[in-house]
Design a protein that fits this description.
This protein is mainly alpha-helical. The protein has one domain. 63% of the residues lie in helices and 0% in strands. It contains 3 helices and no strands. The longest helix has 24 residues. It is globular and about 40 Å long.
Length: 78
């Protein structure tokens, strides 16, 4: 049986792939989030609720799955 973190990570990866595919086919756009913004979102998702300045509604597993490619790969334009 898989844990909720792994299931949320798999859901985040599949959501990212589907969303990227739709953007490419419909609008010819590529989704790329800067590494600093992706890292900031990951840090914000890792913080406990009492330490956050505002509520971050997405669970850590989903954020990791959605932003994993942006954190690991460096995509430079030009």
């Amino acid at each position: 049986m898989l844990s909720s973190f792994i299931l949320l990570t798999l859901f985040g990866v599949s959501f990212r792939l589907t969303f990227s595919w739709l953007l490419i086919t419909k609008f010819s756009l590529r989704l790329a989030i800067p590494q600093s913004l992706a890292g900031g979102c990951l840090v914000l998702a890792c913080l406990p609720s009492w330490l956050q300045h505002f509520a971050f509604p997405l669970p850590l597993g989903f954020v990791v799955g959605f932003l994993l490619s942006d954190v690991l790969l460096d995509r430079r334009v030009g």
